[in-house]
Design brief:
Spore Coat Polysaccharide Biosynthesis Protein SpsA, Chain A, single chain, two-stranded antiparallel sheet, 7-stranded mixed beta sheet, 11% strand, alpha/beta, elongated
Amino acid sequence: MSEQIELSVVMPCLNESETLAVCIRKAKKCFNDNNIVGEVVIADNGSTDGSQDIAVSEGAVVANIKAKGYGSALWGGFQAAKGKYIIMGDSDDSYDFGDLLKFVEKLREGYDLVMGNRFKGGIKKGAMPFLHRYLGNPVLSFIGKLFFKIPVGDFHCGLRGFTKEAIMGMGLQTTGMEFASEIVVKASLLKMKMTEVPTVLSPDGRSGEPHLNTWNDGWRHLRFLLMYSPKWLFLFPGLFCMSIGVLLSAALMINPLEIFNTVFDVHTLLYSAGIILVGFQFVAFYFITKVFTTTAGLLPKSESFDNLFRFFNLEKGLYVGLILILLGVGLSIVAVQSWAQESFGDLEPTKMFRIIIPAVLSLILGVQTVLNSFFLSILGLKK
């Protein structure tokens, strides 16, 4: 019988007795109206208001999920689902489960993930808070498209469909509200076929407070996007800092700079060297994060990951680190010789700092390169 089920509608549930029955009825009516062999799976996360009994009385399958969290409930529901396709949606009657055919049609066409778009389908009055509509969703959707090149306009729509094969192959890890973002991000990273369809959002049918916490859950989504995009979190800021630091340091090592009657000298050179070190640490963290998340299975392997180990290895890192250390030692010797010429007495600080600061910078960068090379090699031992 499980092989005959085409569609499973999975609804997370936590005390949804006011709206659960109508959601189940709408989904089952959609099955009947469109000749879809389907089931409704209620992923109950510990309801105490009788939601489980309501689900059973309406002919739904109840999956009791002990692990708390929106993501945990949905993941348990996906595992219990027997359909070839899965459509998830909240059980608060904000989404129209009677209008699922357009999702099914796209899935039948071969798409792995079909997202609903509330901004195209329509948002009824009072259905979405002002901050969510004009700040949270647009900003997070923009970041998602920028970081991961995701071709959807409503990154956080709760009504979405996918094949069971696709969702089971994503290696999903999160347990909270950010689970919704992880689905879209993993689909993009795994180069799955995605599209979107318009869907209508109605006001929450419950009388109690919504489960979504605007600022906490918004931050969890943003934090997830940043953590799963080490390029934007570490690499690009690091390269920017290093570029600014190198250009400024190169200019100040030759002569002071005068800009708008303000003179920048060795004191600024010290700060520019510090910017280089900060940028270097950001870049190093990018490589460390990339290797760890890939070997741990948090991010899928890619051609760039394989090329990383073809281009960079422990020996090359040691060579670069050794060259930087030798450069620092050489500059230090030059500084000591200048001091010796003055009989180890007082020196002109400005002149000496132009040698000493680059010397210390080279020594620190060299040591950091050696240490990070060893650490990356340890992380990549499986590779």
